[in-house]
Amino acid sequence: MAEVIVAGAGPTGLTLACELALAGVDVLVVERLPHRIEQTKGGAIQPRTQELLELRGLLEPMQARALSREPAGGHFAMLPVPLDCTAWDTAHPYPLSIPQWEIEEVLEERATALGVKVLRESAVTAVEQPGDGVVVTAGDRRIEARYLVACDGGHSTVRKLLGVPFPGRPGTYTAVLADVRLSSVSDLVPKTLGHISTLTREVDDRWVMLVPLGGGRYRFTGGAAGEAEPARDRPVTFEEIAELLRVVYGEQTVLAAVDNASRFSDATRQIASYRVGNVFFAGDSAHIHPPFGGQGLNLGVQDAFNLGWKLAAVLRGRASADLLDTYHAERHPAGAWVLHITQAQRVFATPRPGEDAVELRKVFTDLMRLPEANRHLAGLMSGLSHSYDLPGSHPLAGHRVAGLDPSLFLAGKPVLLDLAGILPSHLGATRAEPVDGLPGAVLVRPDGYAAWAADTHPDLDALVGHPCWSLLA
């Protein structure tokens, strides 16, 4: 018996497993695949996600595996104006490019070091909720636990077993995602990993994005505009990719091998509730959206950082069960907003825009060159502007806390900081030097957001009454 079962060993599930195990929770990860798929998909770690990973010492090993690239900001709808995150007071203003399987490897190494068991070839086939817990059938095992968290992707088996609706907008097209090797290339093929607008090319109704990975290897994304949506499970053929490369990049661009390939669509869906009894949903099992701006992996990892400390606090009796309701209250709006901004980008990013859309693209590109407009979009796409609607009168409450030493959060616990000597000594606050932009004292949640803050006259009743207060010891 485990305290928490996590279904799915992708970035969301493994991040959650790390967070739970760090708090001493007995967690078991079940995964249907026999081994990790070494595919580059989902390889952009946005600035806010980098900040969160740094809080747990996970960013440095990922940086060591990252693809070599010139510093380039993120993008909105692949328009040719890089998003500038430097105005958001972050040590990580650029997206980090790293293959998803490398992210998963780093996370699984940390999880297993913390005592997490990962059971592969263990597909979930049944979920029961008898009273105050769950019983999961995975592979040939029947496992009891207090909670189950479904991190098993857009086609979530857990979601289907429980009959949870997945409302939204169906896909209008599918595209191919593959890791390929080229034996020769034309001058049109990108040589370096720069801004995404330099990596995408369109010819007539065909489009391809090639991301150079080194050694003749590329991440290939492409398709045909206006083509009827084929079945997502239809095999991707060598000839299909070779023809797209030939049309878009010329006869000199020759496909040598396809290492792996899959299809994806631009469907947009979100479940109505992130909790069904003792089952929670995180990552793509809860929300899917068009792949504009590298949002999906990051949204799921941030779900995990939000849910992990809350589950641990309740399981350890350090917080009431009501704390778990805040997971949906905080993360459902966050997911809905990402669906909103990814859908909006369809207008600009469609391979064959109408005349009006072409003109609108030009106008919007000019707007993106204005510092305030660029800063606003940079905050949205990077996650740096995201905040939660938390109780408290101080304007910092619910916002990310920047400028602190990340090592303060390695233990995965909240941190009470006294930056101006305004807290009584018996509270045991960590005394630190003042930080520009921060108040005199702040209680920071394990996920890096301000739970409580004060400038000069702290409301100690509100501080000790906060759910994070009981987690400080």
How would you describe this structure in keywords?
473 residues; globular; 22% strand
Outline the secondary-structure elements.
Layout: E1 4-7, H1 11-22, E2 27-30, E3 44-45, H2 47-55, H3 59-63, E4 96-97, H4 100-113, E5 117-119, E6 124-128, E7 134-138, E8 141-145, E9 147-150, H5 157-161, E10 168-169, E11 174-184, E12 200-203, E13 206-214, E14 217-224, H6 238-249, E15 254-265, E16 268-270, E17 275-276, E18 279-281, E19 287-288, H7 296-315, H8 325-344, H9 346-349, H10 355-368, H11 371-382, E20 415-418, E21 430-431, E22 441-444, E23 450-454, H12 460-464
Helix pairs in contact: 1-4, 1-7, 7-8
- Beta percentage is 15-25%
- The tally of strands reads 23
Radius of gyration: 23 Å
Question: Helix content range of the residues, please?
Answer: 25-40%
Q: Which structural class do you get from the secondary structure elements?
A: alpha+beta
Enumerate how many helices there are, as a single number.
12
The first-to-last residue Cα distance is: 28 Å
Largest beta-sheet details? 6 strands, mixed
Which ranges are low-confidence, i.e. pLDDT below 50, for 5 or more consecutive residues? none
- Largest sheet, order of strands side by side? 5-2-1-9-18-17
Global mean pLDDT: 93
Shape: globular
